[in-house]
Amino acid sequence: MSSPFPYRTRRTIKPAQMDAGRDIPHDLLVEILEDAHWAPTHGLTQPWRLHVFTGEGRVRLADALQSLYAATTPAAEIQPEKMAKLREGPLQAPICIAVAGLTDSGGKISRLDELCATACAVQNLLLSAHQRGIGSFWSTPPVTCHEAFARWLGLDQRHTPMGLVYLGYAKAGVVPSSTRVPLDQRVTFCSA
Ligand SMILES: Cc1cc2nc3c(=O)[nH]c(=O)nc-3n(C[C@H](O)[C@H](O)[C@H](O)COP(=O)(O)O)c2cc1C
After folding, report:
1. Which of 49, 115, 158, 176 could disulfide-pair with 104, CB 3.0 to 4.6 Å?
2. Considering the entire predicted model, what is its pTM?
3. In the CATH hierarchy, which fold is given to the domain comprising 15-173?
4. Centroid of ligand 1 to alpha carbon of 189 (angstroms)
């Protein structure tokens, strides 16, 4: 049986597979963000904080990612190819969204719930983009989950940075594939 909503056909499209010259119309981007915004949250906290980088903003982001990687990685562990990728991603994709969650708001909602809610918003975003013919990639290299990145975004210590989501139309001819283990390896039916 197939699914009526394209949950199963969404595939990761990496920045190198995106058409950097084909912009996503702003109105469409706002619709996708609005879909993300309707994710469920415990206590209606809506903990996600999304910073959307487009145009020259992506260059500023790429510069920051490289500087922060250099500043937060012991010199002997810095890998030139990782350094290069931190620049390539934001420049290859037309839109790059830094994802963070307000995970300690001082109320009764747990950090776990706020992280889960933020991930729900991201999944809404990925599926909404896919339904509109736009590819996406949730990427979590360590520097994008480091507190120094949150500070750079202007977020205080109550926030947890959770990586980047790239959005862009796939280049012609890109046919990504993926697999999943059989359902019974992850799901247990308990009927008695
Ligand atoms: C929270 C999260 C973080 C991810 N981080 C990375 C990452 O840092 N690098 C990467 O190559 N893929 C990352 N991915 C994407 C997965 O590699 C991808 O979803 C998986 O291979 C399944 O492929 P599909 O998305 O096409 O179904 C991440 C996915 C999730 C949900």
Report:
1. 158
2. 0.97
3. NADH Oxidase (3.40.109)
4. 27
